C-alpha cells in the first residue's frame, strides 16, 4: 500500500533550471517550472509506482519528472501544441541512430536550397511564389502587430521554413518525424519577425518578444538568422535531450499506460479519468489573464497543423483572451477545475498548486475554489524562480512579481468549511505589521518579498477574504504605508513614522545603521562612530536607553573600520544598493 505523507513540504528549493537538457535548450515555452523543484515535490508527496497528474500540463515538466522518478504520469492541456511538446520531451527510448539518419535525409533534401534562399536578394524572393505549403491567412490574436501568421515572416523566412517543413513531412517513420517537427517548432521561435537579438538573452526565452512581453510584437530591426544552422542546432539539442531521457526514463515510458498525454481541459477530467485514480497532483494553473497560452500558441499551431477550436477557447481557464472572458468566468472555470481535481485524487492525497498574482482577490478565488471543492489548505511555501526577470518586471518593479508561491492542499474526505475571518482584527494592520517585519529584518524588501510574506499570513489568519474585499491589490496599500526606492527597487520604512509592529531597540538600530552606512558608502563619505550613534539615536524611541556599546556591537557585525575611525558596510551587506532618502 502506498505510504501517504502526513506533513507537507515546508522549505523553498533552490531552482536549477539549466541543469536538465530534457527541459532547457531543446524548446522554449512561456513558463517552465524548475525541474529539480518539481522533482522534490513529487518525491515528497508520492512513491514509486504512484500516479501523478498535472491537469494544466504546459511544457510537461511535471509529467516528465514523474516518469524520471518511476511514477505514472497523467498529463492534460487545452493546447494541442503544448501536448505535442510535452509528449516529445518525455518520449523514450528513442532510436538515436534512426533519428540521425532521418536528419541527414532532410539535410539532403533541402539544405542546399535553403542556403540558396538565404543568398537570394529580397527583391527576387518577394516576386517568387512560395512553392511549398505554409499557413496562409491564419488569424493572429487581436493584440498582435500583424493580422495573420504568415505576416510574422519575411519572404526569405517563409520560403525557407516552408521548404524545411515539407522535407520533414516526407520522413516516413512517425516517431522520428515528430521529433524532427519538434526541432522545427523550436526553430520557429528564432526564425520570425518578433525575434530581436541573441545578445544578453536567456536561451530558454529564445530572444523573441513572444516570450518576453507575451504578444506578437514585430521587432523594429528583425534578425534573419541562418535557418539551416538554427535547425541543426535545435536538432542537436533534441538529440542531447533524448540521450538524457533514454537514460533516465527508458523502457518505463509506455504510451497510454505509464505515460498518458491528453489534449483535454482541466474542467472535464472525469470524462476520461476514473474517480480517485490519482495519488498526487502538482499543477500550475493560469494566473488570471497574465499569459494567454492558446493565443500565444497560434503561430506554432498553424505551422504544425493543430487546430485551436472554439471549444478549446471556451474551456480554457483564463481571463481575457480572444473570447474576452470576464473575471467571473475565469473564477467559475477555475472552481470547476478544482472540483474535477478533487474527484480524481485519492482520499488523503495531496495537491500542490503553483500560483502568482499581485491582487489578493485572485488568491481568494483560488483558495476558495479549493475549499469549496473539499480540499483542506495546509501551508504555503515561498519558492524563488531564479534571477531572470521578464521585460514586464524590469519596467514595473512595483507591480510585477518575479517569484511564486506553492500552496499545499489535502483531500480530507469531506467538504472543508470556509473559515470565518476574525472581525476583531484589522487586516490592514496585519499587513502593515507583516511588511514592517520583512523590511526591518532584511533592511529593505522587494514587492515580491512583501507579497510572498503577506499571502501566507492572510491565509493563516483567515483574513484573506476580508482584505481582498477591502483592498484587493496590495500595491496601493504599500505605496501608502511605505517608501519605494527606484534605485534599489525596494520598500523601506517611511521617514518619521513609528512602526506599528513591535521591535526591539536592537532590531531597529541594526536597520538604521545598515541603511545609514549604505547611503554614506555610495557618496564616498564613511561616517564616524559618533555620526552613526547620533543618526540611530535620532530615530529610536528609547534613544537614551540604547547604550553606545550596543551600537558598536552592531557596527562590528555588519561593517568594518578601515582606519579605526570611520565605518563601512562589510562586503556581504553590499548586495543591495540603498537609497539616499533617510
Main attributes?
11 strands, globular, 43% helix, alpha/beta, 22 helices, 7-stranded mixed β-sheet, 4 domains, Rossmann fold
Q: Return the structural class.
A: alpha/beta
Total number of β-strand segments? 11
Question: What is the third-level CATH name, the topology of the largest domain?
Answer: Rossmann fold
Question: In percent, how much strand structure appears in the residues?
Answer: 5-15%
Walk me through what this model shows.
With 582 residues, the chain is of the alpha/beta class. The protein has four domains: 17-79 and 249-293 and 307-418, Vaccinia Virus protein VP39 (Rossmann fold, 3-Layer(aba) Sandwich); 96-241, no CATH class; 421-494; 503-582, Arc Repressor Mutant, subunit A. 43% of the residues lie in helices and 10% in strands. It contains 22 helices and eleven strands. A seven-stranded mixed β-sheet has the order 3-2-1-4-5-7-6, with helices on both faces. Strand 8 and strand 9 (490-492) form a beta hairpin. The model is unreliable at 200-206, 387-401 and 575-582 (pLDDT under 50).
Summarize the structure.
The chain has 582 residues and is α/β, with parallel strands linked by helices. It has 22 helices and eleven strands.
Amino acid at each position: 500500500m502506498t505510504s501517504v505523507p502526513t506533513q507537507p513540504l515546508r522549505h523553498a528549493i533552490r531552482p536549477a533550471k539549466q541543469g536538465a537538457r530534457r527541459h532547457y535548450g531543446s524548446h522554449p515555452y512561456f513558463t517552465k517550472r524548475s525541474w529539480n523543484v518539481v522533482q522534490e515535490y513529487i518525491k515528497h508527496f508520492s512513491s514509486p509506482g504512484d500516479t501523478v497528474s498535472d491537469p494544466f500540463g504546459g511544457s510537461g515538466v511535471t509529467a516528465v519528472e514523474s516518469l524520471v522518478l518511476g511514477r505514472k504520469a497523467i498529463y492534460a492541456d487545452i493546447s494541442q501544441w503544448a501536448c505535442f511538446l510535452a509528449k516529445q520531451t518525455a518520449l523514450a527510448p528513442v532510436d538515436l541512430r534512426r533519428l540521425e539518419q532521418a536528419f541527414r535525409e532532410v539535410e539532403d533534401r533541402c539544405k542546399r536550397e535553403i542556403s540558396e534562399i538565404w543568398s537570394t536578394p529580397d527583391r527576387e524572393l518577394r516576386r517568387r511564389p512560395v512553392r511549398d505549403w505554409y499557413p496562409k491567412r491564419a488569424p493572429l490574436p487581436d493584440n498582435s502587430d500583424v493580422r495573420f501568421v504568415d505576416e510574422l515572416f519575411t519572404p526569405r523566412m517563409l520560403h525557407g521554413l516552408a521548404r524545411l517543413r515539407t522535407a520533414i513531412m516526407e520522413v516516413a517513420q512517425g516517431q522520428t518525424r515528430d521529433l524532427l517537427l519538434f526541432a522545427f517548432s523550436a526553430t520557429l521561435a528564432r526564425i520570425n519577425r518578433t525575434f530581436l537579438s541573441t545578445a544578453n538573452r536567456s536561451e530558454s526565452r529564445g530572444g523573441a518578444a513572444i516570450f518576453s512581453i507575451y504578444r506578437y510584437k514585430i521587432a523594429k530591426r528583425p534578425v534573419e538568422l541562418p535557418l539551416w544552422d538554427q535547425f541543426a542546432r535545435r536538432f542537436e539539442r533534441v538529440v542531447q535531450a533524448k540521450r538524457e531521457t533514454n537514460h533516465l526514463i527508458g523502457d518505463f515510458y509506455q504510451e497510454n499506460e505509464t505515460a498518458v498525454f491528453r489534449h483535454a481541459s482541466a474542467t472535464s477530467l472525469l470524462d476520461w479519468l476514473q474517480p480517485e485514480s490519482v495519488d498526487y497532483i502538482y499543477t500550475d494553473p493560469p494566473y488570471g489573464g497574465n499569459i494567454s497560452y492558446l493565443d500565444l500558441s497560434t503561430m506554432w499551431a498553424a505551422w504544425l497543423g493543430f487546430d485551436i477550436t472554439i471549444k478549446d477557447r471556451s474551456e480554457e481557464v483564463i481571463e481575457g483572451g480572444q473570447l474576452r472572458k470576464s473575471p467571473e468566468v475565469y473564477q467559475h472555470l477555475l472552481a470547476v477545475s478544482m472540483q474535477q481535481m478533487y474527484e480524481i485524487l485519492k482520499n488523503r492525497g495531496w495537491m500542490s498548486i503553483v500560483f502568482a498574482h499581485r491582487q489578493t482577490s485572485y488568491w481568494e478565488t483560488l483558495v476558495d475554489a479549493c475549499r469549496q471543492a473539499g480540499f483542506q489548505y495546509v501551508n504555503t511555501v515561498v519558492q524563488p524562480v531564479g534571477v531572470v526577470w521578464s521585460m514586464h518586471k524590469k519596467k514595473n518593479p512595483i507591480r510585477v512579481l518575479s517569484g511564486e508561491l506553492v500552496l499545499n492542499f489535502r483531500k480530507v474526505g469531506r467538504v472543508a468549511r470556509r473559515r470565518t475571518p476574525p472581525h476583531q482584527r484589522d487586516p490592514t494592520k496585519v499587513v502593515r505589521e507583516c511588511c514592517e517585519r520583512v523590511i526591518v529584518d532584511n533592511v529593505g524588501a522587494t514587492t515580491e518579498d512583501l507579497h510572498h510574506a503577506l499571502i501566507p499570513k492572510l491565509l493563516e489568519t483567515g483574513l484573506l477574504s476580508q482584505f481582498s474585499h477591502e483592498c484587493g491589490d496590495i500595491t496601493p496599500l504599500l505605496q501608502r504605508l511605505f517608501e519605494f526606492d527606484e534605485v534599489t527597487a525596494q520598500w523601506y520604512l517611511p521617514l518619521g513614522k513609528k512602526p506599528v509592529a513591535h521591535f526591539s531597540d536592537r532590531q531597529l538600530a541594526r536597520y538604521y545603521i545598515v541603511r545609514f552606512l549604505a547611503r554614506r558608502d555610495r557618496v564616498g563619505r564613511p561616517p564616524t562612530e559618533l555620526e552613526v550613534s547620533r543618526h540611530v539615536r535620532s530615530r529610536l524611541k528609547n534613544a537614551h536607553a540604547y547604550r553606545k556599546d550596543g551600537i558598536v556591537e552592531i557596527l562590528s557585525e555588519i561593517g568594518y573600520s578601515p582606519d579605526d575611525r570611520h565605518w563601512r558596510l562589510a562586503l556581504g551587506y553590499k548586495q543591495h544598493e540603498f537609497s539616499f532618502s533617510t
